[in-house]
From TrEMBL:
Top-level taxon in the UniProt lineage: Eukaryota
Protein name per its UniProtKB record: Olfactory receptor
Keywords from the UniProt entry: Cell membrane, G-protein coupled receptor, Membrane, Olfaction, Receptor, Sensory transduction, Transducer, Transmembrane, Transmembrane helix
Parts of the chain that traverse the membrane: 23-46, 58-80, 100-118, 139-156, 195-223, 235-258, 270-289
Protein family membership: Belongs to the G-protein coupled receptor 1 family.
Source organism of the structure: Lynx pardinus
Function, in words: Odorant receptor.
InterPro entries, alphabetized: GPCR_Rhodpsn, GPCR_Rhodpsn_7TM, Olfact_rcpt
Primary location recorded for the protein, binned into one broad class: membrane
């Protein structure tokens, strides 16, 4: 069927049936979002200003922090406004941009975490060649490739989504324009979109996870051959922050997508909100502890 009724704006339901809960979420999300922006900004500033942190690991960390700021800023400010508004609308272009950015930044983070795992592998398994392999240009191209791949594949997904007929349906049962919530509005065949979404998930989520797993298997094999306990602890400490971020990131994704479907759809929305707001705010805390350890060692 042709898309006879053009959609110019969308209504984001959020938790409109639970206004008191939305007030609580407003306070919590505002506090966490503020901590996220300030924490990641301070981390970027510290990595830029302190010469002792001018290394590949902290270069990639700055990219990760920038990604977390952009990712949460793509939907949290409007969501906070909607918590206090009776009319919760977003323009068609705003919804399209929001969906694209959340897709692209989430995809890029998966790729960047794999790049950071490779950096740790080289640092521990090939320490004598570390500066040669992880040169400034190599790090730059790895970062550019991660951003470019994530944004390009997400652009294709977004274009295919918005090419579907929607027949005037414009009520999104979510806090923001999430791709699965948008696809549910279509009155056309979404089988191709679903297939491409699964393929993109495999490429951008599972493939990086396999690379991360392989890197840490090789790292663990090297660490276990270190004769002294102090040496093993020092070697592992260089990976601990990244490994913690990976576990939190993929653990949240796994719980969100592989858990049994909740009887109350609002629970799924709150879990997605946790993934989008809380997880990025943990990265500065985790890496700040590592920064403190590094500076003390230096």
């Amino acid at each position: 069927m042709a898309n006879e009724t053009a959609v110019t704006e969308y209504i984001l339901l959020g938790l409109h049936e639970h206004p008191n809960l939305e007030i609580v979420l407003f306070v919590l999300c505002l506090g966490i979002y503020t901590m996220n922006v300030l924490g990641n900004s301070l981390l970027i500033g510290l990595n830029m200003l302190d010469p002792r942190l001018h290394s590949p690991m902290y270069f990639f960390l700055s990219n990760l922090s920038l990604m977390d700021i952009c990712g949460t800023s793509s939907f949290v400010p409007l969501m906070l406004t909607n918590f206090l508004e009776a009319q919760r609308t977003i323009s068609f272009l705003g919804c399209a941009l929001q969906m694209y950015l959340t897709l692209a930044l989430g995809s890029t983070e998966c790729l960047l975490l794999a790049v950071m795992a490779y950096d740790r592998y080289v640092a521990i398994c090939q320490p004598l060649r570390y500066t040669e392999i992880m040169s400034r240009w190599t790090c730059l191209w790895m970062a550019v490739l991660s951003w470019g791949t994530g944004f390009a594949i997400s652009l294709l997904q977004s274009l295919l989504t918005w090419s579907l007929p929607f027949c005037g349906h414009n009520i999104i049962n979510h806090f923001f324009c999430e791709i699965l919530a948008v696809l549910k509005l279509s009155c056309g065949d979404i089988s191709l979109n679903a297939l491409l979404l699964i393929m993109a998930t495999a490429v951008l989520t599972l493939a990086p996870l396999l690379l991360i797993g392989l890197s840490y298997i090789l790292i663990l094999a090297v660490i276990l051959r270190v004769p002294s306990a102090a040496g093993r602890c020092k070697a592992f400490s260089t990976c601990s922050a990244h490994l913690t971020v990976v576990v939190v990131f993929y653990g949240t994704i796994s719980f969100m997508y592989f858990k049994p479907k909740a009887e109350d759809p609002n629970l799924d929305k709150i879990i997605a909100l946790f993934y989008g707001v809380v997880t990025p705010s943990l990265n500065p805390i985790i890496y700040s502890l590592r920064n403190a350890e590094t500076l003390l060692d230096l």
